[in-house]
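Severity: low
Component: inverse-folding endpoint
Summary: output formatting inconsistent between runs
Steps to reproduce: submit the following structure tokens with default settings.
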């Protein structure tokens, strides 16, 4: 998040180097995601002002375990909108039931890419 071109990156720039390093070591996702071995489904939008796709994709690629990426063009940033994609529940069911999800995208190493384009106005 220290690299983000938004309020998070700005906050890192304003703090002193000791505070920035302490926060980066303890709470910055890039310090912990390479150790994450549990399956992770990353869900985002093309227009998320808080977590842009460059930073988001970097997080997705840095996880140690299996990961899938689901991008919903135009999805708004909120809890309600973030919980709405059905892929979340398909992914969770597949993990809980020990079976691979249906219709995953192409496999990239141990990561999978899922791109869902919504051309209607539902989201």
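Observed output (run 2 of 3):
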């Amino acid at each position: 998040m220290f690299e983000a071109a938004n309020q998070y990156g700005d906050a890192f720039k304003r703090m002193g180097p000791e505070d920035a390093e302490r926060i980066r070591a303890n709470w910055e996702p890039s310090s912990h995601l390479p150790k994450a071995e549990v399956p992770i489904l990353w869900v985002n939008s093309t227009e998320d002002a808080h977590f842009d796709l460059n930073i988001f994709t970097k997080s997705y690629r840095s996880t140690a375990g299996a990961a899938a990426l689901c991008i919903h063009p135009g999805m708004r940033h909120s809890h309600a909108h973030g919980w709405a994609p059905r892929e979340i529940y398909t992914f969770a069911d597949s993990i809980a039931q020990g079976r691979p999800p249906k219709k995953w995208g192409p496999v990239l190493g141990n990561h999978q890419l899922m791109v869902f384009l919504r051309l209607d106005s539902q989201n």
